């Protein structure tokens, strides 16, 4: 099982850029450029990305107290918070989904990433979705930090990794930079940015050990971190989106 699919999704930054655009923090051109960096050419029912943006703006309830855009990630030990047996659930890939809150409906955007770009599918669900974890950034950060420390203690007690890179710290740093590309839009809360950075760092460390060092001795300890990395990303997105709404309502 490839590590990156479990600890990284371009949907994290896609969700934040989409929210920044919805709340008029970022322009359409800047948003499309960022989304292109996050996956190449985006299409929706054969139409270009601008059509998807138009439909999202039409559907989104920007005054809803719940986040207008929510990130859905899932993996081992963590079910996606979508309705079981729904068309959206059946279409879901490892990359996850975005939920756009609309008046009376949840609009679920499911991407399919390939070498040719990103193809989006749109589903509407009028039934209540399973409740998200609704972790605060502080709670998500604490859980991720605690799990990371526990894994480090277990790995150190077992004697550390069996193979070495010429410069492991450099490898981790390079991967952390990859996870952060192409960056975040303006106005992201410091809490969310910090949480994303920690999640990137932990994800890069996991990938360095399992993929670059090719050492799977500690997989059970590292795999337990996957859920907390995903939860941190979802919590950070929610915090950023709610803050965009707060500033929007003040204007």
What does this structure look like?
- By secondary structure, this protein is an alpha+beta fold.
- The chain has two domains: 4-132, no CATH class; 137-233, no CATH class.
- It is 52% helix and 14% strand.
- The chain is built from nine helices and six strands; from the N terminus they run H-H-H-E-E-H-E-H-E-E-E-H-H-H-H.
- It has helices at residues 4-7, 11-22, 28-37, 49-59, 87-91, 137-157, 168-180, 190-212, 219-250, and strands spanning 42-44, 47-48, 69-72, 97-102, 105-114, 117-125.
- The chain has a six-stranded mixed beta sheet with strand order 2-1-6-5-4-3.
- The protein is globular, with a radius of gyration of 18 Å.
- Residues 165-172 have low confidence and may be disordered.
Structure summary:
With 251 residues, this protein is α+β, with helices and mostly antiparallel strands.
Counted by DSSP, the helix tally is 9
Taken as a percent bin, the fraction of beta residues is: 5-15%
| Spans of at least 5 consecutive residues with low confidence | 165-172
**Nearest-integer average pLDDT:** 86
Major sheet description:
6 strands, mixed
Helix content: 40-55%
SSE arrangement, N to C:
HHHEEHEHEEEHHHH
What is the total domain count?
Answer: 2
Radius of gyration: 18 Å
Total strand segments? 6
Strand arrangement, major sheet: 2-1-6-5-4-3
The shape is globular
Determine the N-to-C terminus distance.
47 Å
Structural class: alpha+beta
């Amino acid at each position: 099982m490839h590590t990156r699919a479990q600890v990284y999704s371009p949907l994290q930054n896609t969700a934040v850029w989409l929210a920044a655009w919805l709340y008029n923090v970022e322009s359409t051109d800047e948003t499309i450029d960022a989304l292109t960096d996050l996956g190449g050419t985006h299409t929706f029912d054969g139409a270009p990305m601008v059509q998807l943006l138009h439909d999202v703006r039409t559907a989104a309830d920007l005054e809803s107290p719940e986040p207008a855009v929510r990130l859905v990630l899932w993996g081992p030990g963590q079910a996606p918070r979508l309705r079981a047996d729904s068309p959206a659930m059946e279409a879901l890939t490892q990359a996850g989904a975005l939920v756009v809150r609309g008046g009376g409906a949840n609009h679920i955007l499911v991407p399919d990433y390939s070498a040719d770009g990103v193809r989006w599918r749109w589903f509407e669900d009028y039934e209540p979705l399973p409740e998200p974890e609704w972790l605060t950034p502080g709670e998500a950060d604490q859980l991720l930090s605690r799990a990371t420390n526990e894994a480090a203690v277990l790995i150190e007690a077992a004697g550390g990794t069996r193979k070495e890179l010429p410069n492991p710290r450099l490898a981790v740093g390079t991967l952390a930079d990859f996870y952060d590309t192409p960056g975040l839009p303006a106005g992201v809360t410091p809490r969310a940015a910090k949480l994303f950075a920690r999640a990137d760092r932990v994800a890069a460390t996991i990938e360095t050990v399992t993929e670059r060092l090719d050492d799977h001795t500690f997989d059970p300890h590292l795999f337990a971190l996957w859920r907390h990395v995903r939860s941190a990303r979802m919590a950070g997105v929610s915090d950023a989106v709610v803050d965009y709404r707060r500033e929007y309502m003040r204007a």
